[in-house]
Known about the structure:
Elements: E1 5-9, H1 20-28, E2 31-34, H2 40-43, E3 50-53, H3 65-76, E4 82-86, H4 96-105, E5 110-113, H5 118-126, E6 139-143, H6 156-162, E7 165-169, H7 175-184, E8 192-197, E9 205-210, H8 214-219, E10 227-231, H9 243-250
Parallel strand pairs: 1-4, 1-5, 2-3, 2-4, 6-7
Antiparallel strand pairs: 7-10, 8-9, 8-10
Amino acid sequence: MAPRVFLVGAGPGDPELLTLRAARLLEAAEIILHDSLVDPRILAMAPNAECIDVGKRCGKRSTAQTTINGLLVDCARTGQIVIRLKGGDPMIFGRAMEEMQALEAANIVYEIIPGVTAAAAAAASLKISLTQRQKARSLHFLTGHGAEGGLPAQDWAALARAGGTLAIYMGGQTVAGLAAHFIEAGLPPETPAIAVENVSLPGERKIFATMATLPGILDKMIIDGPVLLLVGQALGPGGQKSVERSAIFSNITHFA
Length: 256
């Protein structure tokens, strides 16, 4: 039986970064359950769909995951083409497993459509490779916000020793705690760190700093959009050839 339910990655925000498969499904969609952060231009690509906001935003009123699961199953049972539209990629910090389990329990066939995750889009915008020979042989995706609020449990010492690049999602509000834990675990305070707000969108901002200085800088700023934190030696002036970027890090901070 062909699936009529799709968990679709909306990418980091820019509609141009949607996959062709996602764009075609949006045109055919009849019901869309979408995250709050999905760009309105993407929803406009689904002219015949009923769009239902089931978003979850840190620090703001959110739809309970159990409610989303139930609504997804109810919509699927109508026989219409249903899309669960998630920011970024559904399988990276998107709670896709809980929704997949709910659909499977109801014997509903579904398909997963991947999307561009924020770390990949940020690397492209920064023109910095997150993995580099002799600088970063690994890339770690972390969440900066636990299910119960605050910092999630992590093996901070192991991550600090790994020496790769850290891509920390939803870390804008917990950056002070993240920095404290990592530095205490042995990460050098001068490790390059970049915060990218509203990745791929017209209002994108890049904040260049170090692990020690980034919390103080963000604390003085008004941050409204989602923030991705990138940390590691590959992000510093020695990690790329740009003279302009080297000058940025020599001054510690820069807002783009």
